[in-house]
């Protein structure tokens, strides 16, 4: 499609130019005299005083700009640098986990008051994505409404169904449990969970243990020891005895009484609330 400019050019080619007016023979056409225009302001000479005034104004403007820039720079430099957050240190959720679990008694893999009338036992794998959903979406509410008030005690029994990386992560968390930081490490493992058998490594585990408030060197030295490995073996034996063939799996009941398996239709707070409230009313 031709442009408008081309169409207009084509239209003009068909219009005849106006005929030139003939001048009388022998008479020259003299152009009228042009009236002299006054000189423009730009052509007028500038006095030294005016030049000096312009220079002073320019210098003042530059000075103001420099002062403004220096104040902005000083403000930036004086702004306190925020403390290293969990996200910048490579570990997500450290402050949230510390707030969630702070002040609650921990003893190894047990969280909550030793006199709580009801226990909730969880079998889980550090790499299990559904276990991570429970840790993120359900556990905070249970801790707030049941564990912190002393109504329910939580017991974690770790399994490594999903491969060698699960065993490494679980043994590291169990070793941190010797410093009463098991629950902090497990929560951070779930918050930083990656693709199956592709995210667990010693630098991340060391960062997680440190962010959990435990001594990483001490935990790493203990994670292959007999105390840690025998505890994990015992959890596996209990899972087999209870018929656990998938995770997460939950059992609940009153202290000293029979445990009931929690049949979940969804990993949601109402399912746990109904079971725990029923046990507390007995």
Task: Write the H/E string, N to C.
Answer: HHHEEEHHEHHHHHEEH
Strand order of the largest sheet: 1-2-4-3-5-6
Cα Rg: 40 Å
Mean pLDDT score, rounded?
A: 79
Binned, the helix content reads: 40-55%
| Uncertain segments | 1-46, 58-88
Task: Provide the structure class.
Answer: alpha+beta
Q: How many H/I helices? A: 11
What's the shape? globular
How does this model look, in words?
- There is one protein chain.
- The chain has 282 residues and is an alpha+beta fold.
- Helices cover 48% and strands 9% of the residues.
- A six-stranded mixed β-sheet has the order 1-2-4-3-5-6.
- Helix 4 crosses helix 7.
- The N terminus is likely disordered.
In a nutshell, what does this entry contain?
The protein is of the alpha+beta class. The chain has helices at residues 4-12, 48-78, 94-101, 129-137, 139-147, 164-176, 182-191, 202-211, 216-222, 226-241, 269-280; strands spanning 106-107, 110-111, 118-124, 152-158, 249-254, 260-261. The longest helix has 31 residues, at 48-78.
Descriptive labels:
alpha+beta; disordered N terminus; 282 residues; six-stranded mixed sheet
Helix and strand layout, with pairings?
Elements: H1 4-12, H2 48-78, H3 94-101, E1 106-107, E2 110-111, E3 118-124, H4 129-137, H5 139-147, E4 152-158, H6 164-176, H7 182-191, H8 202-211, H9 216-222, H10 226-241, E5 249-254, E6 260-261, H11 269-280
Parallel strand pairs: 3-4
Antiparallel strand pairs: 1-2, 2-4, 3-5, 5-6
Helix pairs in contact: 3-7, 4-7, 5-11, 6-7, 6-9, 6-10, 7-8, 8-9
């Amino acid at each position: 499609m031709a442009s408008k400019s081309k169409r207009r050019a084509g239209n003009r080619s068909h219009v005849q130019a106006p005929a030139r007016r003939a001048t009388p023979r022998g008479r020259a056409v003299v152009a009228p005299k042009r009236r002299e225009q006054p000189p423009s302001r730009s052509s007028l000479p500038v006095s030294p005083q005016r030049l000096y005034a312009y220079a002073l104004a320019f210098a003042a403007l530059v000075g103001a700009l420099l002062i403004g820039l220096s104040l902005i720079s000083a403000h930036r430099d004086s702004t306190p640098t925020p403390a290293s957050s969990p996200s910048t240190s490579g570990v997500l959720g450290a402050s949230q986990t510390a707030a969630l679990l702070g002040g609650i008694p921990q003893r190894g893999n047990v969280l909550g008051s030793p006199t709580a009338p009801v226990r909730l036992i969880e079998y889980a794998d550090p790499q299990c994505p559904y276990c991570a959903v429970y840790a993120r979406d359900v556990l905070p509410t249970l801790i707030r409404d049941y564990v912190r008030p002393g109504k329910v005690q939580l017991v974690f029994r770790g399994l490594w169904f999903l491969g060698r990386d699960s065993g490494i992560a679980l043994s590291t968390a169990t070793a941190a449990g010797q410093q009463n930081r098991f629950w902090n490490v497990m929560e951070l493992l779930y918050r930083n969970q990656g693709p199956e058998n592709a995210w667990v490594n010693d630098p991340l585990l060391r960062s997680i243990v440190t962010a959990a408030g435990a001594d990483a060197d001490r935990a790493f030295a203990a994670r292959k020891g007999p105390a840690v490995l025998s505890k994990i073996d015992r959890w596996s034996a209990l899972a087999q005895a209870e018929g656990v063939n998938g995770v997460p799996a939950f059992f609940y009941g009153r202290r000293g009484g029979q445990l009931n398996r929690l049949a979940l239709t969804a990993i949601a707070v109402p399912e746990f609330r109904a079971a725990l409230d029923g046990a507390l009313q007995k």
